[in-house]
Amino acid sequence: MISTTIENYIKAIFYLGETATNVTVSAVAERMQNSPASVSDMLRRLYEKGLIKDKNNITLTDQGSFLAKQIIRKHRLWETFLVKTLDFKWDEVHSIAEQLEHVQSSLLTERLERFLEYPETDPHGDPIPDKDGNFPDLSIIPLSESEPGKSYIFRSVATDAKDFLNHLDNKGLQLGQRWVIIEKEEFDGSVKLLVDDKNEVYLSEKVAKNLNICSGELD
Amino acid sequence: MISTTIENYIKAIFYLGETATNVTVSAVAERMQNSPASVSDMLRRLYEKGLIKDKNNITLTDQGSFLAKQIIRKHRLWETFLVKTLDFKWDEVHSIAEQLEHVQSSLLTERLERFLEYPETDPHGDPIPDKDGNFPDLSIIPLSESEPGKSYIFRSVATDAKDFLNHLDNKGLQLGQRWVIIEKEEFDGSVKLLVDDKNEVYLSEKVAKNLNICSGELD
DNA sequence: ATAAAATTTTAGACTAATCTAAATATTAAA
DNA sequence: TTTAATATTTAGATTAGTCTAAAATTTTAT
Question: Strand runs (DSSP E) across chain B, as ranges?
């Protein structure tokens, strides 16, 4: 009934809705790599299917939002499987999970979740919604809002872009590490960290804004 | 480049080619649950893509055959995963594997195969081709060609039909069992077995033709 | 060997998803 | 507040995959 194409639109609208106050046709077009004309046309169909509330204010209905969360749930569970079970690296899994997220079988999703022992986050540290669409509360903040002298755990990244993840790998940064903030530069927002009590790492504000942390020591 | 639809046609032609001497438009239509008109049209496209040799004699090219074996390989590896790792029953996995078989990533397939420890057969006992498309040699025969008094191992089923598998479950028949042929009835081809030295089971010729065995004791 | 039956192909139409180009509407600036 | 720039929608086409109905071909049987 609902095509892979529609699922991808719903996912894009959900993600855009998380950050932007109002989602626009051109933002969806940009994200989907489609023309605005195609998006405009598709929004009509999404509206007819009861997946968005309104044509002018692009907001998901409860049904649309639930669907989005199911797709995100599947994506993040498959990413976890690929990294934990099949030994993929965290920057290799995105495009495979984009395919696996469309496989339809709620039993499969539940069995996979059980096999992975009900993970709260995926390999990027992003929270995995449960089967009712509820996200676990991780209370994370961007590194750019950290306080000097305090200790944090590196929890997630705000973007999946391959070269960004690669940059982190090169700096030796990995999820779950303990980071102590050595200093923050006021005028350019750059941050200096002590990673796992060993290495000092210097990060620009641009990078710091895309790294999410939560306060506290390691588990 | 090659759609899921085309992959399904290629798979259907491969399977039909295994049993029938010449594959017909109507046989493909029957198997795909499409009209003969659609099939005829599609065959033109398959020919243009170099996947079948000829329009009149429906035979896969080397490229088409390799593609078919890759899809079958993925299908059978995923079925094995679903049963062995996620505890599905062997009659529940077919429709999920039909989706998973279209996921494109040779690295994924190889990692999955490694995780499953290079299985030779899927949960139905069907051989899994390696990454070059070579099937392992299992030297199996249909039960209908067995000899009275001899001992065999139940290796595979010739069809995935849900009600057929269910019928087998009801009779207590499972892959890997040791079957001793008690007697074969000449006039109707029916067979009486001793299963695992415990139960006597009576099977019609229709069923016996769809059960594959290989000679020998259990491993 | 010809008629009847079955099979296959062609013709024309439909849907989903896309495009470009043009028209329309909205937002921002002078 | 009227113009200019930007954003969105509509119109008309295209492609892949499907359909039904009709035409053409091939096979089978008398």
Answer: 141-142, 151-157, 178-184, 191-195, 199-203, 211-215
